[in-house]
Amino acid sequence: MGFQLLRGARVFDGHRFHERTAVLIEKGRIVRLVQDGDALPENLQIIELDGGILAPGFIDAQVNGGGGAMLNDGPTPEIMFTIAAGHRPYGTTSLLPTLITDTGDVTEQAMTAAVAAVQADKGVAGLHLEGPHLAPAKKGAHLAELMRPVEAADIQALTAAAQKIGCLLVTMAAEQVTPDQVRELTEGGVIISIGHSDSSYEAAMARFDAGAQGVTHLFNAMSQFGHRAPNLVGAALDHPSVWGGIIADGHHVEPAALRVALRAKRGQGRLFFVTDAMSLVGSGRDTFQLNGRTVYRVEGGYCPKLVLEDRVTLAGSDLDMASGIRYGMAMLDLSSEEALRMATSYPAAFLQLKDRGVLAPKKRADLVWLDDQCHVRATWISGVRQDQQA
Questions:
Q1: Which of 134, 172, 231, 267 has the smallest set of CB atoms within 10 Å of its CB?
Q2: pTM of the predicted protein model
Q3: Which residues are catalytic?
Q4: Block means of pLDDT (10 residues each) for the chain, length 390 residues?
């Protein structure tokens, strides 16, 4: 394959918009952004885009399921590919399949599967283990009986897996991991996010200072901000290096709280979008099973919500990334630039995925073409348009 030139859309490079600009690709990588009048190479295929926005493909750090599949039901490369394919129509070209709290055997299977899935280059960028080192007091839809503290064997297994997978994100409660363990894990290449935790502000800050890089779904399943006890929410907003995923679906967090958090977050760490999606995204079903419990889709609001049989406990989301971006612009006072950053360059920076998230020379040609309302028209992975694949 020779050079490809995608032109005719406004180009968002992961940081800002460019007018009268095209994207030049060769062998699945970005060569450069091309301005009107720039010299072009020979052996060039020109792809005309009739308006809209051309941006880096979306990156989702927390995806439990999609396309009718849940990672916990069968942690294999094939299930991971199904999940990635279920989210691709919504602009996500890189995601971390997310395993919620499960047995040691299932966790080991997921880590092994992720190695092969990442190598296949089908939209799986790594693995997110959300548990089992969580706090029963903030279990959410997880099984408390499987939760436990971090042990020496866990550190050995996780650091070994991180070296093989390349991108391993692990959610842990501050109560279940010590600062020294956090330091050892992060030095071993594991990305630690604090979540499902009833942590104090001081305990959270100690783990952030030790190297924990983020918080999992800010506000949800964590100790809340108080004026005399800022707790985990306060620590996440106050620590300058900490990143935080947010679920922008209108059900997990009131928009006013997210607007305040977005204004309050200080430092280089930012808030970014995650979907926390379950299997129903990209499928036509209305229920699924989670650890033997039925989860129901309930219509209403900005998008449907997913709840357990009590119809109160949230069990992940029915959100896709493009919808989260539109919600951010409509409800969170975000500019189109900032909303797109929160799905592209910000999660790439948090996950240390240095080869994607921006349109710059030598980066992966993972792209999404949007209309002006941020509905997806097409995606590319490594320069291959996905809706043209067999």
A1: 267
A2: 0.97
A3: 276
A4: 93 97 98 93 95 98 96 96 97 98 97 98 98 96 95 98 98 98 98 98 98 98 98 98 98 97 96 97 88 89 90 91 98 98 98 98 98 97 77
